[in-house]
Amino acid sequence: MKHVDVLVAGAGISGIAAAHYLQEHCPGKTFAILEGRDSIGGTWDLFRFPGIRSDSDMYTLGFSFRPWPEADSIGEGESIRSYLEDTAAEIGITDKIRFGTRIERASFSEASGRWTVYTRNTQSGERGSISCDFFWSCMGYYRYDQG
Question: Which of 7, 57, 90, 92 would staple 132 via disulfide (CB 3.0–4.6 Å)?
Fold first, then answer.
């Protein structure tokens, strides 16, 4: 079973911010990001209907380490998705993301002080697991598969 110091769940806004934090403040720690979808961006990748926009200003919602580059503070969905993809590439975390990897469950062992996270590949159905010392959930609060 593979082990990382920190396992981040989700490659949306929060997951990208978590990865940046780890690189800046914990450079000696290993980490991976599990993403159930095949793309970066979370909500902004999933929802692509015409007219989707942020309901918060992007100067607040965006990253302090890479400010929102557009003049309009209310971002269009496609612009936000591009911003997230570009940010992930710029900070060099894309290779840390395991796309198409759903988390089925996670359990903590008091004896070892580690988490074991059980996964399933969305394409092959293959199950796997990864252990970590710290499990950081950045999955948001919507269950899109439940409607």
Answer: 7
Report the relative pairing of strands 2-9 and 31-34 from DSSP bridges: parallel
Residues paired with residue 98 on neighbouring β-strands, in sequence order: 34
Q: Where exactly are the structural domains of the chain?
A: 2-146
Strand partners, 6: 31, 134
- pLDDT for 18-31, tens place per residue? 999 999 999 999 99
Given CA atoms 22, 23, 26, 30 in this order, what sign does their dihedral have? positive
Read off the amino acid at residue 35.
E
Nearest to 45 by CA among 85, 17, 7, 8: 85
* Contacts of 106 by beta carbon, 8 Å cutoff, 6+ apart: 115, 116, 117, 118, 135
d(CA 7, CA 64): 22
**Does CATH number 3.40.50.620 belong to domain 2-146?**
no
How long is the chain? 147
Q: Whole-model pTM? A: 0.91
Our CA angle for 76, 8, 46, nearest 5°, is 30
Taking a C-beta distance cutoff of 8 angstroms, is the pair 135, 7 a contact? Answer: yes
